[in-house]
Design a protein that fits this description.
Largest sheet: 2 strands, antiparallel
Number of domains: 1
Structural class: mainly alpha
Order of helices and strands: EEHHHH
Helix content: 40-55%
Distance between the termini: 61 Å
Number of helices: 4
Length: 89
């Protein structure tokens, strides 16, 4: 199953067992960060992987990633201002 979040595609999925109360604490953290529980866990796992000196292999491009803009590109496109027109002769 593929999960799509904020324009990114996450093709892999896994389940894990957690201590009692973890889900509630995770929901509270997600609310504080104004995001989803999945994104909180995803970011924490990515930080841990990077902290241990590991890198994820780049994903092969798909039709969805080839044709979509990244979030950064979309933010930049919103910031572009057309040039001001000078005085007309």
């Amino acid at each position: 199953m593929t999960e799509k979040s904020n324009g990114r595609v996450f093709p892999e999925r896994f389940n894990l067992k957690v201590p009692q109360g973890f889900s509630r604490a995770l929901a509270e953290l997600a609310d504080k960060q104004h995001t989803t529980r999945s994104e909180v866990v995803r970011q924490a796992l990515l930080r841990e992987v990077e902290a241990n000196g590991l890198q994820l292999a780049p994903a092969p491009p798909t039709a969805a990633t080839k044709s979509s803009f990244t979030a950064a590109e979309l933010r930049l496109s919103r910031l572009r201002v057309p040039p001001k027109e000078g005085p007309r002769p």
